[in-house]
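Look at one such:
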Amino acid sequence: MPDDNLPTYTLQVSADNPLHTILYFTHNGSDPSADFLLKRPAPAESRGRYALGLLDVHVSSLVYAEVLLEPDWAQPTLSAAEVRAQNGVPVPPIAVTPDAFVVSLYNPDQAVAVRRNQGSWKTDSWDFEIPERTFKMPSASQIDQDSAEPQVPEAVPKVTFRWKRDGRLSRDMTCYMTGRSVGGKKSKDPDITVAMYHGGKSETSVTIYEPNMARVEVEDMKGLEMTLLLSAEVIRDLYLSPRPDLFNTAAAPGQAGASTSRPRKGSRPSRSPPAAAAMSGALNARPQSPPTKPAPQREPRTAQTQAEIDAETRRLREMVAEEERRDRERRDREEQDRIKRMLDQEENDRRRREAEVEAETERLRQQYGGQGSSSSSSRPQDSGASSPPLPPRPNAGASWYGPPATHAPPKPPRPARPASAGPGQMRWSQYQQPPAPQHAPPQQQQQQQQQPQQNGGRLQHGLGKLLQHPYANNAAASVSGFFGSGGGGHRNDDERHREDDRKKKIKKKRSVHF
């Protein structure tokens, strides 16, 4: 608790009117005396704004200082559940407390701006400046005395004061006069305590630290005292412990001054004060302000319109998203159809190529298969016609395979060897067995049938039969060229080899194609 000897202002709510707060002053243990009155206007008279005035307790029309503040409007951010609960109804905007307010002093008129410095833990502070010279300089000139032009604010040196919160959860504050650098150096004077504010549940108090007031180089000490009292109470209402319905946004437009739709905590219906004492002198000096009260009403309408615009924007966004989704699905279907058509086309091409291959294969089979069979049946006859006839077999070829011997011309017999006559011929013919029957060309079979007829049925000696064997010509030719022509035997061998080569080529051709 501060010392009782220090100047202290105790704030107590009036029992007759909860909108009035009386400031009782004590010094050096004296009895409390009512010196000032803090007055708040009725909610209906200050709709959409915050107002607080410091008046004389005996003469309510005498105003020392006042604060008039309008909030900043912002659209609230709702969750999905809250949006569903609203059923599409636009949400009205909410009032946001500004970070600065102005304390207006009268006689002499002066505006002191209080700015909030929001920081981290236990660093919230509020700064304001008081000029060192407030009153006019004494002058004997009547022109200077009648001049009402204010001084240039930048040309007047000022002293900075700072309300600093004692703790994050505390409602107590301390006001310091910040030190100034001397001689342009970085070092400065230390901060000195000027006032202390104690915020209690039942009552609050502002204590002026008198020992340090002599070090405050301010000409208007009474103005500084009014600024300390009013700024401390406004900071409490706005930031330390905000009052319910601070900006009177819940009151109806045509509602009476005493009743509200959302009553304040600990408030009750108040008696209608006289019109002259409704608010401070600054408000009474502006009678045109009541007609401008509907101005805050335009904010909800504007906010409602903004909410409707936002709802329409969301609807259009959903519509655009739905159209994009449909276009995406349509493109996907078209791509699937294109791929399906491409696969079908490939399948048809494959089947067509297979059909062409099968048709070409069948054509080649019919072409080369028929030629191979016809060539195999015709070539042996051609070879038989071109090759020389072989000697007939004794008593076998004509009777088994050969046709009648009347169609071929007779062939002269070969001359017999001189040394083959004798009884040995008969003995050789008795032991010689006929060779195995073989297929021979028709002309050769005819020659074999005609041979016995030309011989007149006479038996030849055995060596003659051996010489008439198909393989005897080559053997006789190899021994000597005296009996028959040796070139004929070689010619028959060459023809036979060429025939064998042609047959092999035909077989090879068939195996390649089929």
